[in-house]
Structures are given as structure tokens and as C-alpha cells.
Amino acid sequence: MARFVLTRLSPLPPADCWARLTAWPRHGDRVPFTRVSVVRGTGRQPGDVILARTALGPLRFDDPMELVELVAPMHCLLAKRGRVVRGGAELRIRAVGAGTVGAGSEVGAGTVGAGTVGAGTVGAGSEVGAGSEVGAGTVGAGSEVVWAEELRITGLPRLFDPAVALAGRLVFGRVLDHLLATPPASATG
């Protein structure tokens, strides 16, 4: 499986980052030839399904993602259940204050890199939110946002995993930067 982890710091509080990251249709704004929509539920609770549909001429595929775990405004686990793209994604947000980024942080050391994203175990026993200031309203605090993915492209040999991971970092890095930089058209919590 191709694995990558993106980490960004934002001056926004966790609730604002959360609203931007879970405005699911906006994820397609920076992924070429792709539209994203919520196809089951509201996109706000476990069991809901988000669909990324990529089409370039006659070539098309769907990437359905089920919300497996959701703890607003700090953690979201998605399982990729498509025929072409398998794996999962985890979004984590934690409040940070001046000079605290990296102090005691477990970014990149959790179970995401161990091959369990989408297996329903990411976050079980992790340090996400444990002792964090999420929701504490710290003046001048921002957020640390972590986007971790594991991708398996059906039919593509594992030899290509490093290239898939690089492409994922580039594409989803653009998506993450866009989501954090621009507010959604309408606030959705």
C-alpha cells in the first residue's frame, strides 16, 4: 500500500479547520477531473458515504468512502471501499498554542503507518485528543491538521507504491492547502 502523511499548521481554531475539511464537495476543487459529493447521509456521521467520481473522457471510476469514525472537531476516519481505490484516510485536528507544535506530538507515529487505516482500529489507543486543548478556547491558538492516507490501486503492482504515495502527497497537499486557505461558501458544522 502507498502511504503518506501530510501535516499543516493553521492559525484557525479546530472548529474552523473541521468545517473546512468536512465540506466534502470542496475536496474536488483541486483534484483534476474529479467531483466529490455526499451520496448517503449528511456527511456528518458514521455510516455516511462520500463519493469522489473521476472522469476523463471514456475513462471513469468511483472512489466511495465510508465515514467509519467521526469525533468532531478532531478526528475522522474514512474507509475507501471502491473497486479501483482501496485503503483509507484519517483526518486529525488538534489545538496548538504558541511554541507547542511538536512538543509531545505523536504525528506520524500512530497506527496509520502500520497499515490499519480503514480497518476500524485507527485512533483506538492513539494520542489524538488525549490531553489536547481542542475546544479549550485558548487565545491565540491555532491548529495542527494531519491528513494520513493508505491507498491501493487495483491491478497496479506494489512496485509503483512510492509513485502513488508521491502523487498522493502532491494532489492531496494541494487539496488540504486549499481547504484550509478558503472558507466554505456556507458554514456547515
UniProtKB/TrEMBL annotation:
Domain of life per record: Bacteria
Protein's recorded name: Immediate-early protein 2
